Amino acid sequence: MAPFDRHSANTGQIEARAVDFERLAGKALDLRTVTDKAFQPAEADWDGMCAEELKAAPEPVRRAAQETSSALAWAAAPLRYWEGRVTAFNAAVDRISGTLDGGAKDNYGAKGVDGKPPTEQQVADARSTALADARQKWWTAYNTDIVDGAGTAAAMFRDGPTEANLKAARAAGALPATPGVFAVFPAYWHQVNMEAAGRRADELAKKFIDPYYQPTAAELEELRKLVQDYGKDKAFAYTLLTALGPKGLLELNGKLALYNLDTPGATDEHTPLFDEKGATLIRDLQLGLGIVLATATTSTGTRTGPRGEGYTPGKYELSGQWVTDLIAAGRSKIKIGSPDSPLTNVDLFGYQLLGPLLRSGGYDTPFLTRIGSDMIDFEIAQGKNSALWTTNRGDNVRLDWTQGHDKSPAGYDPMTGLMTALYFNPEATRDILTGSVLYDGTTEGGRLTRLDYLLTDREWDPKNDVPFGAEWRYEIDAHGGDYKSQGLELFGAALENATTDKDGDRAEQRRIVESIIFETNIDEDGHSKIGADIIHPEIRDSMANIVKSYIFDVNRNLSDSYSGIPDGALNVKKADLVRFLIDIGKDEGAHKTVSDAEAVFAGTEYAKALQNPEIAGDHKLEALNNISDDYGHVLGALDLGAVTADHDTSAEQDEKHNKEVEDRYAVINFVADQVVGKVTERIPVPGVGDLAGEFVSSALEDAQEKAMVDSSGRSAFEIGNKLGDSRDAVSYLMDSVYYKSGVLDLEGTGLLVDGHPKPREEWTTEDYRAWDKFKRGAGVEVASADNHAAGAYQAGLGWAEATYRHQK
């Protein structure tokens, strides 16, 4: 062929042959069934879709018919692909030729000088340029559509429906999305490919497991590509893990972990036997295998039996027996290491080799509940605490490469991996924690033993989750304080997610929160902990977020003005809750989380009481005072924790304190504006239970955002000096809500702007004086409420101290 020739292939005949192949392939199918299954081919089974005359045939005959039908159907795909390439090429040739012919009518765009017609030479030059451009375009189309297209079509015929060929066929529109054979076979071809890929991955894995075998870089890269490309495919994951088996999976992970040795601050340049690219390779393989395991254990089956008590796994879902065998392997010892290197030989529990794989997250609830429950129960039953996992460690041997290698856990303690998985699955966390109950008479509903163990008994020392070796001993001696317990932090975050998840069972969630408060307060002899830290510092921020979400329940449990706890609310001992709040207050960030949430809640309650027409006179003041009492209980307990921990408190007048006070009052001002505005405009503001917690969280986020972006707190005066401590903050909230509530007659005070209270952020010294004068006269009820609020804080602080120091 030469430039501007069209391809001579008869595309009509090519399409006719493709239709013939498709028709012949369809003879083995029940087309009615195929039509019904057209949009869910992955669920379709050949035995249910083949033609009636084949359904009664022996299995080998049905399979032979399937293979024949598949081959005929695929033959249509490269034909249609080639037809498409020829059609595209000929269309390109027509465009190129048309452009060239059109150019001839206009002298190929040649222009003369000074408005004169172009000369013959100018036209010849323009024609030469146009021809060169047209030839270039023709050759580009020829190479793309004809040369490359022919090669791709030939590969399709030669190699069959590989993943690459399926991708090319789909991109070219060679697999019609209409009912018929192509509603069935693409899914079948993909499954065949994935099963083959799974078998290849298993072949590589079993070679790697051999302690004497050293895989090549190409083999390791091949396995990485397989698990990364296909780890989320059910057919691939199922085929690989079914062939490899639970123990094989754990052994493979152990072997992979040893392809690099780790020393503190390891780098390519300064560390023998360490390779950064190798570390990245191991990370990818471990994360990829974790995804494979999550994919193959995801529930895709159906419930059976009258009450759904039975379960039939999906086609590519690992069986319950496979999971049982994984649990058995997890409890068993597995030796990893090379026989030629005794220092890296380590006897480990299988669960330690499973831990890194759990870091991938995304695990299904039933699987994670079974594995997690047994892992915790196994550790408890052995009676060695976390030392069960960390006693045997190899020199410079890191098991977990998923999070890098700089001060991240080495993976000997599998609870870190489990907590990572639970962080991503609140439902499994709830199921595990509520799945083991001890009825010892101390609580009405029994004690959650797994929660108690993890929260109060377990040792989470991160310095024990590093490799052995002289360099590591020196590292821990010199920098051990820099190591943080990721497992404990993740446990706190998992508890937070499990108890605040909006889709969770609220009864289960409240039971866990009640157990957290109870168990943190009780020592091993069943007595209250007096004057002691009761919450791990690493999880105080998570505990604070839980309290924020249950702020309504917290207030009702601390209140003296209610005869009982509302149905569905937390129900805990007041003294336990106070000690819990005191401990939260020891962390600055946690203190701020709860104190700000309480300001939102109290402000909401104040505003509703002021706007409620059914509450009048002394009853209104009584309602306000009751709210202040609750506010004082919460803030007093938090501040006592701050004093006990000796972090900056509102009594200190340094620059850092002034900034904290500024932020606090910015939040209070915002709360007063938003809450009073909603109540005044009769916009519903939730006041009970879960909705109250959600409202508080949302309003608090808005308030904190405002506090970070403006300086309203010191716009007209030095607020840190004028409103120095929490006592004043409690009073100031009451004062602000009252002022903005609209129930006061402020005429003649100079505090109204266009009939509305002037924003306090804009007050001048004269405005403060006017407000003080008003409270000494017509607004005496405001002063009374302010004074009670301040006294309530002082009383709450004193009561918290008595509770902290003495058993109640």
Keywords:
single chain; 808 residues; mainly alpha; two-stranded antiparallel sheet; 32 helices; 8 strands; 3% strand; extended
Topology:
Elements: H1 11-26, H2 31-36, H3 46-49, H4 52-55, H5 59-104, H6 120-159, H7 163-171, H8 185-209, H9 217-230, H10 234-257, H11 276-296, E1 302-304, E2 310-312, H12 320-331, E3 333-336, E4 346-349, H13 350-358, H14 365-382, H15 387-390, H16 415-423, H17 426-434, E5 437-438, E6 447-448, H18 449-457, H19 470-479, H20 486-500, H21 506-521, H22 540-549, H23 551-558, H24 574-584, H25 588-611, H26 618-645, H27 655-680, H28 689-709, H29 719-722, H30 726-740, E7 752-753, E8 756-757, H31 765-776, H32 780-805
Antiparallel strand pairs: 1-2, 3-4, 5-6, 7-8
Descriptive report:
The protein has 808 residues and is mainly alpha-helical. It has helices spanning 11-26, 31-36, 46-49, 52-55, 59-104, 120-159, 163-171, 185-209, 217-230, 234-257, 276-296, 320-331, 350-358, 365-382, 387-390, 415-423, 426-434, 449-457, 470-479, 486-500, 506-521, 540-549, 551-558, 574-584, 588-611, 618-645, 655-680, 689-709, 719-722, 726-740, 765-776, 780-805; strands spanning 302-304, 310-312, 333-336, 346-349, 437-438, 447-448, 752-753, 756-757. The chain contains 32 helices and eight strands. Strands 1-2 form a two-stranded antiparallel ribbon. It has a two-stranded antiparallel sheet with strand order 3-4. Helix 18 (449-457) packs across helix 21.
